[in-house]
Design brief:
single chain; alpha/beta; 10-stranded mixed β-sheet; 3-stranded mixed β-sheet; 10 helices; 22% strand; globular
Length: 435
Amino acid sequence: MATPPLPTTEEFPTGGGVPDQSDPTSTSYDERELLLRGTGSVYGYGADTDEVVVVETGRSWTTRILARWPSDPAKFSGTVVVDVGHPEMGVGIMWMLAGRHLRREHHGYVLVTTRRNTLAYGDATPVTLLQDHDPVRYAPIEFDEGGLTWDILAQLAALVRHGGAHSPFPSAASKVFMGGFSGSGAYTLMYSRSFHDRWQRAEGGPLVDGYVIGEPSWYQHISSADDRIPADQAPRDLDVPAISLYGSSQRIFDDLVGCGTARIRDDADGPSCGVRTWEVAGSAHTARPGCDLPASDLDLGHYYHLAFDALARWSDGGAPPPRADRVELAAPSPDGRPRLRLDEHRNAVGGVRSVKLDVPVARYFTCPENSANVMEVFPPDVLSALHGDHTAYVDAVRVRASELTAEGWLLPDDAAQVVAEAEAFDGFSRSPMTT
């Protein structure tokens, strides 16, 4: 293994930057947007897709990073999360899902703009989206080969570990985690499988200390130089931990994106390493209104909080996080597609549990019209039959939240949020359509 070369950073020439939709709400964090420049290689596969080979060297690239850290440098934990920007939409989904936990723990965060060569949603790339927003400010970005992403990620991780004048952070990181969701989850999966073992930090040891692989979508070409897609796409056993997170059943999601069961694997434990797959029952890939119903209030972010909390302990040799049952499946549909097994409330059975499903006030499902996670609140008579009254319901929520916290499935701050939501719930006295 080798140590990646260190890239350089510089300020943007002009303009105020893109107002990121996931900006921190707390004033206790600082933010800095920088150009990141370096030189990298383009890769392909060898005789089979288990082997990665260099097909071109010396390719210059310039991309954008957005760093966040505690305003008081003395509070910085030393941990940095590298958020693999969505390779087509450009957004930083890890901050949306886990930003509250990162702030609570005083971690650093850096979003890096990536891209993929095969576009699924039109002609725009993360680079052209930035340049359309501000042609002058973002003109220096020069990044036309998606296959350079792997060296960009490695070099950024090396830079934040090294610290110094070109680091976006006020001090060097002692630990680096990497994560992504959907398209960037696929990129996180690809990097962990094909490039984690290629690089090490200067003093030895892994360059990245753990991975959060959020519901990875289509596996991409490694570069424009090689159009092969590996048949085996399951997370590999590495010398660091990795946690894969899915909204509901992995088998259903993999079927939708055409992966079959090639990513299904068993959990594993090792010293400071291992693999977990968590399927969050009742969730889905996105939550937004659909089917004339409101967006689900099942907070998927709680499980990303758990994942980064678990990585911090696990990578230091602490106890591994709990294992979870898979979401249960019923008989396949007439056309052979996998389907969820549902309980008497028409909610998913098995998987990682939540207060929302175990003390239910709604049905949670994926709207077939737009594939969004929605909720259908039970009418008052059903709520009364299930829970008695609002006070009894809140008491049941407190009990279940305490149980899940003790079992390792809910962090205390998130348990408090769930109880507060139950206290504010007024469905016992109003129509579900007004929720």
